[in-house]
């Protein structure tokens, strides 16, 4: 893996990846952080890759400019909670409280983002544990443990030992998306692959999973723009 830059104003940093399996050049723009990755077959010169980048420059710059800017979460900011917009407002008492269209955060306003994040993580754990428990019972296969992380490369995983991992940011997505991811990972307790049998199991547990999977692919990257 190397790094080059597409000249311009501003220059665009590009991760350069060589692949023995690649048959042609390909360009990927991450919806999570805007990272540009150029994959080249082993024998293609770097200069040819740069020429390919220049051909795609207008497309690249257009998509980079269209990305929503990151949002610093604090008093007055609006964030989605299970897909529903909520404004963060000052609260009373000691605990964070979910209201109608608002998340009430008491205490020092400068720490509102940190407190909101802690509340969201706790809610994510409750929701994901509840969904995982429900699907695991339906499947007849218990999982070993459940952990939350702030992952960028995947929304969840299931190890061969039955350990489930989820991104806590799933609590920002619509409820049906969180439930789909839980069903997806629990289904791996039966099938550690993405075979037809695996997808049949996801359907058995969740129902029609196509809409939430499409939502994640199109909109999931935006869940990482919220900075706490």
UniProtKB/TrEMBL annotation:
InterPro entries associated with the record: UTP_pyrophosphatase-like (IPR053136), YgjP-like_metallopeptidase (IPR002725)
CDD domains assigned: M48_yhfN_like
Residue span(s) of domain YgjP-like metallopeptidase: 32-218
Keyword annotations from UniProtKB, A to Z: Hydrolase, Metalloprotease, Protease
Domain of life the protein comes from: Bacteria
Hydrolase among keywords: yes
Pfam families: YgjP-like (PF01863)
Protein name: Zinc metalloprotease
Source taxonomy: Bacteria, Pseudomonadati, Pseudomonadota, Alphaproteobacteria, Rhodobacterales
């Amino acid at each position: 893996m190397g790094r080059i830059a597409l000249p311009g104003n501003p220059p665009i940093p590009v991760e350069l990846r060589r692949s023995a399996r690649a048959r042609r050049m390909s360009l990927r723009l991450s919806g999570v952080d805007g990272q540009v990755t150029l994959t080249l077959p082993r024998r293609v010169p770097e200069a040819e890759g740069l020429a390919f980048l220049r051909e795609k420059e207008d497309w690249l710059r257009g998509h980079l400019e269209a990305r929503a800017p990151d949002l610093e979460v604090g008093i007055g900011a609006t964030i989605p909670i299970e897909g529903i917009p909520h404004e963060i407002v000052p609260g009373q008492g000691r605990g964070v409280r979910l209201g109608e269209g608002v998340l009430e955060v008491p205490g020092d306003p400068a720490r509102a983002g940190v407190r909101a994040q802690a509340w969201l993580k706790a809610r994510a754990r409750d929701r994901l544990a509840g969904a995982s428990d429900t699907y695991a019972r339906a499947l007849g296969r218990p999982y070993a443990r459940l952990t939350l992380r702030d992952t960028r490369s995947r929304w969840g995983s299931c190890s061969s030992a039955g350990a489930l991992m989820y991104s806590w940011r799933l609590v920002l997505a619509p409820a049906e998306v969180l439930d789909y991811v839980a069903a997806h990972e629990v289904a791996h307790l039966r099938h550690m692959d993405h075979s037809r049998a695996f997808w049949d199991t996801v359907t058995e547990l969740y129902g029609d999973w196509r809409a939430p999977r499409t939502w994640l692919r199109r909109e999931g990257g935006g869940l990482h723009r919220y900075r706490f």
